[in-house]
Structure formats: C-alpha cells, structure tokens
Write a structure and sequence with these properties.
single chain; mainly alpha; Rossmann fold; Arc Repressor Mutant, subunit A; 19 helices; elongated
Length: 462
C-alpha cells in the first residue's frame, strides 16, 4: 500500500509550493488506494506558531484535501526520538561530541582560510578519554567518510553524492537533547509507514543525511521523488508579489478550490494537451514519474483563465453558496438565475463576481464623469424620459426579451439607433458605460427599480 505524507513546519504560512507537493502526495496515495497522512514538524519551539498550524489546517479544509488518521505532531514524540538516540549510542553508531562553540568556530575559520569545505573534523568520533568539564555534548552520528551515496529518485533518476563532499558526522541531537530535523524526519517516515516521499528538490541535499539515519537504524528506504521548484516568469524563485503567498490569500482573492488545485497539478506535470482536470481525473492520471525534471513557471494569467472556467461552469447553487463569503445572500432573489447566468460569464474571480453582482443590485449614487460626457449629449434626457414612460406603461415586464422589446419599439418610434438609447440608459442604471447587457440588468432589478434609476439620473442633471 502506498503511504505518502505532507510534513509542513508551522513557522510560517502554507505557501503555493508546499501545497503543490501536498497535492501530488495526496493524488498518488489515492490513486493507489493508500494513505495520505499529515505531520506537523513543530520541533523548532522558538519559531513555531499556533496560527501557522491553524492556517495549514484551514487550507486543507478549504481545498478538500482530507488526510488519513490523526495528525502527528513531532513536538509530542520526544520520548521516541530519545529512544533511538540511545540505541545508536549503545551500538556505537553515534557518539557524544564535546567540541565547544568556540572550537567549532575556530575550526571553520581555519578551513575557510585554507579554502577547504567547512565541516566537523571528527575530533570526538573515537574519543575514549575524560570529557572536558562544562560542555553539554551534542550527539553526532557516524556518517560514511568515503564512497558514494546514490539517491534513487523517481523524478530525477539516480543522483550521486560523494560522501566526503557532503557528509560529516552531523548532529542528531543538540546539547539540550533536542533532536535535529534530518534525524526525526527519517524516524517518523519509517514509523508512520511512509514508503513514498514526494517533496520539493530543495530537500534533495538533506536526503543523503536521512539515508545515513535509515541505514544506521536498519530501516528500509522509502521511494524518493524530488519535485523541481516553481519559478516566476523571469526564472527566479517565487516572491510574494509573484504568488508565493499564504494559500488562504487565494481564497480571499476569489479563487475557487477546484481552479487552484487544477492550476497546481499542471505546474510541473502534464497529461498530453489536457488543461482542465476534475479531481477524479487528477487522481487517476497523476504519476510522479511524469513530473517534469525542470522548474515550472508560475503564470497568473493561466490561473485566472482556469478560475473563470470553473466559475462559468459552476451551478448557480454552488456560486450562491460561494458568494456568501462576500456578504451576498442570493438564495431568495427571484431573478437569481438571470443574475448569475449573466454575470458568471464576465468574472475571473469570485471577488470580481461579487463586485459585479453588487454593481447590478445597488442603485448608483455617483456617475462616472467620462461615461456621462460620452453618453449624455443632445437629446439623451428626452430619450430617457420617453423610455421611462414606455416602461411605466407596460404591464408585463419579466424577462430580458420583454425589456428589449420596449427598447426596440422606442428606437423605431424615435427613429434612432440602439446606441442612442443604450448609452445614457446604461449610465442611468449602472453609473458607467461598462457592464452586462441592459436587457438582463433591467430584468434582474425589475420595473420599479429601473424607473427609479432613470428618474435619479434625470434629476442629477447629467
């Protein structure tokens, strides 16, 4: 059974790159009938944030990425880590290092002056003398000093590291007993049954160290899949300006979960020329071996295009529910279907859709000066007056086609083009020249509100 995990550190927000690796891990587990588990790597007590943890959980809930079983918190597993540290010490695979911070600093400065790679020199590797006083020792693992370490990676193929270039006897527990990242990750992945690790390739350099821990403890290795980073259009690391922001900010900006997940799955993975994927399709089609070996490019235009697609293809019930986040209650609006059918074709985001809805449903109290100048020329007031009278005289006005017939009749009667009616009427109804079709707007707001807005515009002496 495939078991994958997502293991964020709650020292900051969940960003878009982390969410993508979570999605890839989720899809691969579900495709194989396996488990997707969530582990909070909160051993850095000084930097941990409860708010960050809550934000991660809120993001998962919003996106519908359900993890299997209870959440694991590393901060609650100190006894487990201590047990394995003792085991390695007892087996002679790890040792206490009494090198002081001053000694270590001096060693590194000497190595740098000699243009050597900075690393621990193994002073206490086979030490059997009397420990110096006043030093709280760290625990170091005995790492290979020569030879190759080969990471068999599902995305990158075999990645070869020279032990002497990347390893020294690295610390697995600090002087206060706190275990270090590479040590606890290997232990937790094994104990949680993780056999497929999908993560960003910024972790690739950690993998040889974790493999040393696996080997020392006799644990089988999981399958590693290191995913290339997401870059901006200039090929650089994403910044907040580019999109590397809190995942929940995407909700605030008006993106739908389906669009965001669809966008992310296509960052570094593809299935032919297909662009639109349902969750079921993602699950059944995704395979880590198909992940691109090069970095993917974040493209806001693509995200907007996908979001517009999902908005346009959502049911009005779904949209009405989503719009409640923006203070809009449309469940009982008698023209909800016309309203949403008209406006969802025009919106890239839910926030934009909410704004469009408010523009249609709210009586304008201000009028765009440029629109007024262009629309209200000779005869505009007379045309609006005549149109208002025509509307008032009609008994049956319900659908857009009913209002269109009135406009058509007035244009014929006054021997003018539709633009002569449409431009001042649009400003009267919406306060500007842009917006959805006038027939639909009038059908949505109804006869009385249409007449009110016309009268307001005339009174304003536009």
């Amino acid at each position: 059974m495939v078991v994958t995990r997502f293991a964020p550190s709650p020292t900051g927000y969940l960003h878009i790159g982390g969410l993508r690796t979570a999605l890839f891990s989720y899809l691969w587990a579900k495709e194989n009938g396996g488990k997707f588990v969530l582990r909070i790597e909160d051993t850095d007590k000084a930097r941990n944030s409860e708010e960050a943890t809550e934000a991660i959980l809120k993001a998962f809930d919003w996106l519908g990425l359900e993890h299997d079983g209870e959440i694991t918190y590393q901060s609650q597993r100190d006894d487990i880590y201590a047990k394995y540290i003792k085991q390695l010490l007892d087996e002679g695979k790890a040792y206490k290092c009494y090198m002081s911070k001053e000694e270590l600093t001096e060693l590194r400065e000497t190595q740098m002056a000699n243009k050597e790679r900075t690393k621990y020199n193994g002073k206490y590797r086979d030490f059997d003398g009397t420990p110096p006083e006043g030093i709280q020792p760290v625990i170091r693992i005995k790492a290979p000093q020569t030879g190759e370490i080969i990471v068999k990676d599902g995305v990158k193929g075999d990645v070869v590291f020279q032990a002497e270039d990347i390893l020294d006897d690295f610390v697995i527990a600090r002087g206060d007993g706190a275990p270090t990242y590479n040590f606890v990750v290997a232990i937790d992945d094994h104990l949680m049954g993780i056999n497929q690790v999908i993560r960003g390739d910024d972790h690739l350099s950690n993998t040889p160290k974790q493999m040393v821990v696996y080997e020392a403890l006799g644990f089988p290795l999981p399958k590693f899949n290191h995913v290339p980073m997401i870059h901006n259009a200039a090929g650089k690391k994403l910044s907040k300006r580019d999109g590397a922001t809190d995942v929940m900010a995407y909700k605030e900006m008006g993106y739908t979960p389906a669009a965001l997940l669809n966008f992310l799955v296509r960052l570094g993975w593809s299935h032919g020329d297909q662009e639109i994927f349902s969750m079921d399709e993602m699950i059944h089609l995704f395979n880590p071996v198909d992940i691109n070996k090069s970095a993917s490019i974040y493209n806001t235009d693509k995200l907007d295009w996908l979001n517009a697609h999902y908005i346009k293809n959502s049911s009005n019930d779904e949209l009405a529910q989503l719009l409640t986040e923006y203070g809009l209650v449309l469940t009982s609006h008698d023209k909800r279907e016309i309203l949403l059918d008209t406006l969802k074709e025009r919106a890239k985001t839910l926030k934009e859709l909410a704004s469009l809805v408010n523009e249609v449903l709210s009586t304008p109290h201000e009028y765009d000066a440029k629109s007024v100048k262009k629309a209200f020329k000779d005869g505009a007031i007379e045309i609006l007056n005549n149109f208002g009278k025509k509307i008032d005289a009609c008994e049956e006005l319900h659908l857009p086609v009913d209002y269109h017939a009135v406009m058509e009749g007035l244009a014929t009667e006054m021997e003018i083009g539709f633009g002569k009616i449409g431009q001042p009427l649009r400003v009267a109804l919406l306060g500007k020249l842009s917006g959805p079709g006038l027939d639909e707007v009038m059908a949505i707001i109804g006869k009385e509100e249409t007449m009110l807005r016309i009268a307001n515009a005339i009174t304003a002496n536009l």
